[in-house]
Amino acid sequence: MTPIPEAAMPVVRIIREQVPRPKRLPFQDGDKLRWKRKREGLIVYFCPMGLLPGAKFAIPISGYGAGLPDEMYDAISCFGSWWDGLSDAQEAVDAVWGKA
Asked: How far apart are CA 28 and CA 66, in angstroms?
């Protein structure tokens, strides 16, 4: 398991504060870990930043899309790259939210 990069920690701290640990593990969507939920009658695939209460997109790539300040662009990009490089769902969730 690749440790969370220090540059991504501002995003991780916000996720830990604002998003309860998911009850289900994400599933493998191609080579990415995602949660599947209904939004406005459609099935949508979410990354952890997309679970933030203020997120405007399920897989945000900017502060605006994640509901975070745009000044956090580097941290958002770093977190997204790190998350998308993971393949073990349990280890990924434990890394972000701690072990249950």
From this structure: 21
Residue pair 60/70 in contact by the 8 Å Cβ criterion: no
Structure tokens at 38: 């209904």
CA distance 44 to 36: 6
Residue-wise pLDDT tens digits, 38-52? 878 888 899 999 999
C-alpha torsion 10→13→19→22, nearest 10: 110
For the chain, how many residues are written?
100
Token pair listed for 14: 């916000």
Task: Find how far residue 84's CA is from the centre of its chain.
Answer: 9
Residues 89 and 27: beta-carbon distance below 8 Å: yes
Question: What is the model's pTM?
Answer: 0.91
1-18 residue pLDDT tens: 789 999 999 999 999 999
